[in-house]
Fold 2Fe-2S iron-sulfur cluster-binding protein.
Amino acid sequence: MTTVEVPHGSRSAVLRVAAVVAETADACSLVFEVPDELRERFQYKPGQFLTLRIPSDRTGSVARCYSLASSPHTDDAPKVTVKRTDGGYGSNWVCDNVKAGDELEVLPPSGVFTPKDLGADLLLFGAGSGITPVMSILKSALDQGSGRIVLVYANRDAASVIFADELRELAQRHPGRLTVLHWLESLQGLPSTEQLAGLVAPYTEHHAFLCGPKAFMDRVHDALGTLGVPRDRTHAEVFNSLAGDPFAEHVAAEVSAADAADAATVEVELDGETHELRWPRKQTLVDIMLDKGIDVPYSCQEGECGSCACTVLEGKVEMDNAEILDPEDIENGYILGCQARPITDRLRIQF
């Protein structure tokens, strides 16, 4: 049995696994038990994810982000779903080792892949385990809204379809609102841009959310582009394996007198509050906010998860790693707070 005596940092917590659900031959879900004293910290939005600390004989631990497939509106406990990947240490360790009653160290929910309006018409795309955050959004929208929801779900074959029974039941329960379109590679081959565009052409007024392998999402982006769906109505979730340790305690950096004198000034709006801060040019936005004790959203600090995405309203920044952002996102002012350093003397940023 896996037990964790104390968390490694002030941000993380130790949660007990209440149940392990076998979803398919290569995917399982972990249902977590959240004690009353942690319920507020572990409240989440549809489409967010948890970061798990996974033991490793080689490095001590690795951190992996797994999306919540549960809905905060319809499910009593948070549930993440993990699908094995070839050579994937984290996913294989979870599927091989975790049992009900085990304890895992977990960071609070994070991520921005979540609708602003659950009442809107939604066009959802998932491929393989990309269904996980999409499922959370789908169930939440059915419960909280009244809009129409279309799901395009691609898999290798029928046996690979995660949540097949649950999706069937939801479609039967909401026949006027939910349309599920399955695409099976074993029967139809890989979907082309043209085929995807033809499939969703009647739904171009919907807000699109997509998650899955890069090749699949590239085709979806191209398909939506050919149909004229605006970029501000298209939202993609991207995950990469984390190399660093987001569970480590933040240590404030020492700032030289020269760097302090040359610092920019930034006005940051977060959760309805505005903070005016000095921003040394060698530090990231997340770093300076943590130094001031501000509860800024972040997870990996490597530019790989998108938790710290925010918008530049005034001024300019440079970023070390922004590969998960599309060029159109950057043009629209989106940045990653954990990668951003100031160029201009004054900036205004909104989370």
The chain is about 20% helix and 30% strand. Residues 13-109 form a domain with the Elongation Factor Tu (Ef-tu); domain 3 fold (CATH 2.40.30.10).
